[in-house]
Design a protein that fits this description.
386 residues, 9 helices, 3 domains, D-Amino Acid Oxidase, Chain A, domain 2, FAD/NAD(P)-binding domain, seven-stranded mixed beta sheet, globular, single chain, alpha/beta
């Protein structure tokens, strides 16, 4: 391959992480003369998921927002906690709108190419060699969002759970929803002995996304979610007549495995594959935006690419939390009740965004019952061989 056909940067995968990185490059004049390639096997023109996140004030993606909320609820059989989010808002973006916007912006730049091709082999080097089904590509730096499942991931020292969910976007004949308030977690309907809850995002008085969600080591049959969705809508939302406009389904890894260490010469893992998804919550959209910006600065300043992307203190917190849920999965409701019931929602968001001080973290951790976390810490340290 000729030298002028070598790309400076290649992004494998046009999901949230890959597109955040590409868009961050396009916003920065430093990259204006760099040849950039995006390789994506799918068309990315479907509305396959919903991106939700909290932030203060105006954000970079407000033009895409389907709905936002300043109030929320946390519900159990015993508690109904009102969440007043100010100065935060909880925002919802449809993936299809994000993909469409990204494609339009990328098409405006001549130095970036979006190619539909599936990568079947990737060899490190300077440059790295990318083998697709349709072509071979060379790149000085590759950012790879594909998650590689190998035997190391299965090692006993790592804790693995899954956030898995199925949601229905429903429409009712009559106005039944308060679209000023969303439900963060509702534990009144649960799968036995598990951390499972319902999540409700009302987008109008007659439409809402209702999602049944698990944080567990096991998964269930695709159709089993439907029984819980029907029951929740009928018995707890008191809705008998509705239509289903859209179905959303997904599985997000919640793992202490250091996915980001799978990179090699000229290849860096990003997104889920780069440990950008927060293990304790599964939130990824804002993490991808933040990490893409940091990565851009590292490139420009010729620093180690991974510098400042991951916080070891919060990785430790997440690993202990996962160890608790791994061994005592039914305690999820208690843990989250303590968190939302004993701490301001603003501090919770700040903590989950990894922006708190050590003292602020100690106060939040102190709000949890200590025995499960001491057991979780023991389990985590035992896995590491201490």
């Amino acid at each position: 391959m000729k030298l002028d056909n070598i790309y400076d940067f290649t992004i494998i995968g046009a999901g949230a992480a890959g597109l955040h990185l590409a868009l961050s490059m396009l916003k920065d004049d430093w990259f204006v003369e760099k040849k950039i390639l995006i390789l994506e096997k799918d068309t990315k023109n479907n509305d396959d998921k919903t991106f939700c996140f909290w932030e203060q004030g105006k954000g970079a993606w407000d033009e895409l927002i389907t709905c936002s909320w300043k109030k929320g609820k946390f519900i159990t059989d015993k508690k109904n906690i009102d969440l007043h989010l100010f100065p935060y808002q909880y925002k919802m973006i449809r993936a299809g709108d994000f993909y469409k916007m990204a494609r339009h912006k990328i098409a405006e730049y001549s130095n970036i190419s979006w190619v539909r091709d599936e990568v079947v082999d990737l060899k490190p080097g300077s440059p790295a060699t990318i083998q697709g089904l349709s072509n071979t590509y060379l790149s000085r730096q590759v950012f790879d969002s594909r998650v590689e499942i190998n035997n190391k991931i299965k090692e006993e020292k790592y804790v693995h759970l899954k956030q898995h969910f199925k949601g229905w976007e429903i429409k009712t004949d009559e106005p039944v929803f308060d679209d000023s308030t969303f439900t963060m977690m509702d534990y009144r309907l649960k799968w036995e002995n598990s951390t499972s809850f319902t999540y409700v995002l009302p987008t109008s008085p007659t439409t809402a996304l209702v999602e049944f969600t698990f944080f567990t080591s096991f998964t269930i049959d695709y159709d089993d979610y439907d029984d819980y969705l029907r029951k929740y809508i009928k018995d707890l939302l008191n809705i008998d007549r509705y239509s289903i406009n859209k179905i959303e389904y997904g599985i997000i890894p919640m793992s202490s495995f250091p996915f980001h260490k799978a990179g090699s010469e000229g290849i860096m893992k990003i997104g889920t594959a780069g440990s950008w998804v927060k293990p304790s919550s599964g939130y990824s959209f804002k993490n991808a935006e933040k990490n893409a910006r940091k990565l851009i600065e590292n490139i420009k300043q010729q620093k180690k690419l991974s510098k400042g992307l991951l916080n070891s203190r919060f990785q430790f917190y997440d690993a202990v939390y996962l160890a608790v849920l791994k061994e005592q999965n039914h305690l999820g409701e208690t843990i989250f009740t303590d968190m939302y019931g004993k701490n301001p929602i603003q501090q919770i968001f700040k903590f989950l965004d990894e922006e708190t001080s050590l003292w602020e973290e100690i106060k939040i951790i102190a709000s949890f019952k200590s025995l499960p976390f001491l057991k979780g810490l023991w389990n985590y340290m035992s896995r590491l061989g201490f």
